[in-house]
Design a protein that fits this description.
The chain is mostly beta strands and 74 residues long. 0% of the residues lie in helices and 51% in strands. Strands 1, 2, 3, 4, 5 and 6 form a six-stranded antiparallel sheet that branches. Strand 3 and strand 4 form a beta hairpin. The protein is globular and about 40 Å long. The chain starts with 15 loop residues before the first strand and ends with a strand.
């Protein structure tokens, strides 16, 4: 069995990220703040629940902190 090292993902302010609960449920946002190489805030631009976009949420277009299990660069 081989073991591969994972390369770190570099995320910068203004990058798009996915804040992921699971494969079909995630938030998409533009990073607005990073502290100690960790995303601390982003502007929420899209919400996907069970593969469907939620366009009614009051959280859209607001600055929030990451909420789910992990985030990754989009």
């Amino acid at each position: 069995m081989s073991c591969e090292l994972l390369k770190p993902i570099i995320i910068n302010v203004c990058d798009l990220i996915q804040d992921i609960e699971d494969g079909d449920c995630y938030f998409v946002g533009k990073v607005t703040e990073i502290k100690n190489n960790i995303v601390t805030k982003y502007k929420l631009i899209s919400i996907i629940w069970n593969g469907e976009e939620d366009t009614e949420s009051e959280d859209l277009n607001t600055e929030i902190e990451p909420r789910w299990w992990y985030y990754t660069k989009k």
